[in-house]
Amino acid sequence: MKELKILSPCGILGYGYPKESFYNGLSKKPDLIAVDAGSTDAGPHKLGAGVGIVSKKAAKKDLELMIQAGYDLNIPVIVGSAGGSGAKPHVDWTMAVIKEILEEKKLKMKTAIVWADIDKNYIKNKMAENKIHPMNYVPELTVEDLDKTNSVVAQMGHEPIVKALEEGAQIVIAGRAYDPSVFAAYPIMKGFDAGLAYHLGKILECGALCAEPGTTKDCMMGYLREDHFLVEPLNPKRKCYISSVAAHTLYEKDHPYYLHGPGFALDLSDCKFEQHADGVVKVSGSKFVKQPYAVKLEGSAKVAYRTLVIGGTRDPIAIQNIDDIQNDIREQVAAYFDDIPRSEYQILFHLYGKNGVMGSLEPVQTPAHELGIVMEVIASSQELANTICSSARSTLMHFPYKGRKATAGNIALLYSPSDIEFGPVYKFTVYHLMDIDDTCELFPTEFVEL
Amino acid sequence: MTENKTLYELAKVLRSKNSGPFELTMDVIFDNRDYYNKVKDSGIITKELVCKLYNIEEKDISTLVFFDPAMAFKITIKRPIDSGSIGETDVYGAQQHAPLMGVLIPM
């Protein structure tokens, strides 16, 4: 029987996994070890600032076992969306870790980088050709937004990774990749069905999150066969059920059975989930539907600076008047700083116990008996944010709102000092599809001597 | 008299999460075919209901689909503010599910 076994150590490289689960996986002789290292989930800061999700120590700890196993079993080790966001600083950071490991272990392994950074001029040309399209609910891309964007990456499909493997890479460090691509590339190269390979990749990319109890911090094995695949947790404490695997298919996607990837859609409408054995689920019927090739671009820009104060109120009269209090504070600060244009800063209130979590989506209108207050100031410079925050905080503390009896102070400040200088604030300025012709040209491979 | 049960009581999983930085997606997953069918056939899970539960307009809903093989339905809506941007309050979108929990389904 034709079969390819994929070991997924954890949901994000550096989140960690139990050694016992990993060794259990190795005893089943996997053909590939692949891991996803990235996500846009933590917001625009990581890509914009060029920093990682996990510590270097954690990434190294996870990679050490993977690389040794790849060497011992002579199988490929693939990391996708290296360093979290998969742009050059993130890939360089990951490569430094790989280099350290190979040197310490005195191993020689052919290592390929697949870059995912996209030149902004290339994107401007594509804009002129009308080949950049916003994702759902995203505004059209403007040259102005692109110019202020720090770096832009694109999510690669399996093709550039296949190319690196065909050229003999034992370790592939891929920049930003569509999460399942790093799992699907090797099996597709070996002639397995692309629909099943991508669907399996979609499930494996989060580690054992598809099992019960679910976690990103444990290992899974995927058995890809000709007309189906199996998923099996590698920790005996966890089991896969139809509901847990099906649940994971839906995870973080806009549609339950139509998943868009680079150059294709995955049609799962006729998919079958079956309990194959205790804790093991069988999946079949996943269909790969080829589409005009487009890649998803991601870009983040620094847009402002922030300073904030954390506190709370337990006063029922203050809680009753909280909307007026916010407006009055904004007016008082603006009146005091009448030499600073109001467009230079914003004063925002997050009221926990009212609508701090859901904001405008909150249907419940009755506030709790106490409110957590996060007052933040967003401004064009850090200094201005600090200045406005200091003034707004003292105004909030002593403002004589309607009906007040507690004249000594309006807010329980959590800390001394009360004002927290946050630093820059980022925003996703690019989240668009780009039509392309040659996917490998866009994601060049570089072999590195280590 | 018909007994009602909440979605919270009937569902195995009821959650929200980002689907990219510009959308929020809610998954309600069942592990009981009878419960799933009752919810699906009740006709209660509609775009109109979602608009009411989340103070949004129909154009802000991109998906409301039942998926039989997974015994699940999914609702995807526009984020009021994109993840991590100025004024935004739930970077991962992980705490936007609660209004769905109390929806009553006749059994």
From TrEMBL, chain A:
Pfam families: AtuA
Domain of life of the source: Bacteria
Domain Acyclic terpene utilisation N-terminal: 81-212, 242-399
The name this protein goes by in its record: DUF1446 domain-containing protein
Species the sequence originates in: Lutispora saccharofermentans
Source organism phylogeny: Bacteria, Bacillati, Bacillota, Clostridia, Lutisporales
